[in-house]
């Protein structure tokens, strides 16, 4: 199998959207895959477990022999048929396993025996993951701008309005608050980092992010990137309460309901959305205290009844005190811990967007000059 073709672990494979076939077991794929990959395993979870035990007890040769017995006959034919069907749809697909070793080589060999030759990634999943993590670390060395402000100031929208914005909450599929859980399953830590790395491939220069805690839902920001965010200059968006209330009504009610209805239908979607919002509010018992929580729960229950009668704006009755009694005191305390000089600009949404664009253009121009000087110095050194 030494003549089977290889491709280097180049991140361009991801940025170009190349189709990838992951031949690892489903349990490995679920723990974290490369962006855009489809899981068509050589061995299922139980087969992998048995081969692993055999390897520990009797060594590599015995493990390979067991694998050949387990994945043979109709099982082997079904696996090869799945790969061939995928290659008919995506003829330029590339194969990978954990380290680019035996599993992807076997898949390549069986695919070739069926009439198609496709390469595998040198170093496999591990090499590509290392490259994605290195891209995140490299971005931490580039200029960063952090957008802060109270809840409902549309900070995420501001980041998304910029061509160099990195939506961390989008990567985590979580809005980073007690009410921030997305109806669809959030990615694990590895897939979160891969989503970050993939977006950063499009952002070679300065990056703008929203102010976040290190934990966004179940995901943690990589250490180097988090530390860079703490050092970075900041914008502070300030908007009036009624504006912010309309914004969180859109986020917590309108958009959430749209996703639930689309995914689960009217009846089940409504029940699941209500359950999520009720559970999210209940989690604040320690911070709100029993009396305030009970008051907000009564207002929330009334709002759901009004919503069913065609008045979704009724939710503002519990969202307004949620802002003023929970979110605002908490975030004001965090914002006030920052020295005034740490903020590049404090102002409304439009002015912060303008300053973010100006900062981005200045940083891009500065990096361009620095690159020009570096090229010139290299030429002088060679001369």
TrEMBL record:
GO molecular function: tRNA 2-selenouridine synthase activity
Keywords, ordered alphabetically: Selenium
GO biological process terms on file: tRNA wobble uridine modification
InterPro entries tied to this protein: AAA_SelU (IPR058840), Rhodanese-like_dom (IPR001763), Rhodanese-like_dom_sf (IPR036873), SelU (IPR017582)
Domain Rhodanese: 14-134
Gene3D superfamilies cross-referenced by the UniProt entry: Rhodanese-like domain
Source species of the chain: Halomonas alimentaria
Taxonomic superkingdom: Bacteria
Protein's name in the database: tRNA 2-selenouridine(34) synthase MnmH
The keyword Methyltransferase is annotated on this UniProt entry: no
The gene coding this protein: mnmH
